[in-house]
Design goal:
single chain; TIM Barrel; binds zinc ion
Amino acid sequence: MGKYLKIIAAVLVVSIFIGLITHISKLQATVKALMEQNEQLQNENSALTIDLELARQEAQLGGQTPTKPMQPKFAYLTFDDGPSANTEQILNILQEYGVKATFFVIGSETEYGKHLYRRIVEEGHAIGLHSYNHVYADIYKSEEAFMDSMYKLRELIEETTGVRPDILRFPGGSNTSYAKHYGGPDLAASLVARIHREGMQYFDWNVSSLDATKPVVETNVIVEATLRGAQGRNQAIVLLHDAPAKRTTVEALPAIIEGLLAQGYTFEVLKRDTPPVHFRLP
Ligand SMILES: [Zn+2]
């Protein structure tokens, strides 16, 4: 009997052992499966979280005004042919309104002229080149003549104000017939290439105040031309003049500023990296 009991006991022990091993490996498999399932659920959960975040962002966007946001509108008042006594009055008006503008100046070696160059710079306006003497027959004779006139002016301004201008306006505009007349059909294009090669930018205009169509233009004509020309734009580069004769431009300035503000414009100064207005070359 003792022998059989031993055998039975041994078989039992072995079966229990096998059973335990089987059970443990089953448990291990279950644990592994559960862990995999858990990981998958976690992945699904984070995917759902992302979906939810996207949905929330879309909902927020949808909740905003359906129309597209207001485009900022920039007006650049530009004054050519100064400095003169009119420049001084224009500076006073700009100061009163807290408006900054751009002055494309010519050469003036007088103390008064230098004082005005300094005021332009010190009061936060931009100063640009418009040739030393504005004499078409001189400056449009050749590429070198044009550049020499600009360099001479640039040196004077830098000496006087400490600022070295890197923007310019062609006297008469970049498509002026004077360039072709005095310098030949290719002069304008070679000047444009030269200006850009030297790291400068030139600006024509897309709003004319008409203040140079005759020696003295009526104030209301200047105001109306400017405000009509600026309508419906996002960028208005306004051509004005501060030469000695242009007293009606001074008179027109407050109404021009108020009218452009009413049209939603913000005033800015021209910089080398401002999106330029360039005329098509003839
Ligand atoms: Zn000019």
